[in-house]
Amino acid sequence: MNSQPQRLKAKWILPVDRPPIENGLIEIVDGIITTVRVAEPHEAATDLGDVAILPGLVNAHTHLEFSLVEQPFQPALPFADWIQSLVAYRRQFMPTSTEPCVALNIGAIESLMSGTTLLGEIATNVWDELFMPTHGPRIVAFRELIGLRPPNIEQQIEIAVEWLARKSELVPVTYGLSPHAPYSISPELLQRSVELSKRFDAPVAMHLAETREELEFLGHGRGPFVEMLKSFDAWPEEGLSTGRRPLNILRALADAPRALVVHGNYLAEDEIEFIAARPQMSVVFCPRTHEFFGHEPHPWRQLLAKGANVALGTDGRGSNPDLSLWKELVFLRERFSDVAPSKLLELGTRAGAQALGCEHDCGTITPGKRADLVAVSLGDGDPLEELMTTDSRIVRTLCGGKVG
Ligand SMILES: [Zn+2]
Question: Global pTM?
Fold first, then answer.
């Protein structure tokens, strides 16, 4: 281990947990931040120049397996048809095909180049640590589980146990579970997934309250998801319990050590309050994917007003043109000028780290945390106002003090 301190200087440092520091200096020892302060005149340090150094960005929800898709899948609506396109894309690859592996690698590199140092990734059977770049972003890999019928449930639980017992020597990976969505997972599989997450102290991520059709499915057991499941031969003969709503699912998820509610586009008032009252729960808002599907306005500001943790994600390239979390921030800044840029920055960093259970060692530029940092070029003037303009550019990303 090299214990020589590494010093970085920049015009601005935006630590997130305290106000911006002009002419700031960060000292790093063995990949860990040891000091954050104003630089002394003529102090020896690597000068990054007229940039702002931010905590590395956190993309709390993506599907890297779709990283070679050039354009989002069509049609965007109805949603069940979009899923059919996604499944058709997946099915074209043979088990021995290398495309999904390449996609995982390219997607991780694309994320890194756009400033992401921590990823919440949904992993399927093509996923392997081997395909991740060695100096890439850290990854919380949620194994996708799908099953509505009893034989599938047992098989999925076996996969989940094996996944959570995994150890990664090559790249930093934390393992979690992703019971996919209310229309693709039985209440029993959901409950057993949450029990496993408790046993292994693992995080859980689930797509929830994503569409109006999902609410119809939960409440009445009808709508386009029923037809879609029948076409996949995945519909349980005995049917599914009805009279449910996202709140029932939230109650199950609340037992997990850490739970990410992915999308949450159609959360009701009491569901927002339920999440806000539980610090182990977060909502992951995917702004450009939300726009791609033409949803009703997202309740992210109501969630924040109630004190809920809201993280940001890109989702996969099946519904977004790229994997840049930075572009999500620029997109929000353009549309929500009433939200302070410091708040947006917090959503893309600290809040994402909290959602993924990594707030103890990243998400802010704080002594004792990892040197996961990103340098952004910006114009003159107030650095927070200058950030997230369409001209701003990620110029460098460091993971644990190393250039990615
Ligand atoms: Zn997703």
Answer: 0.96
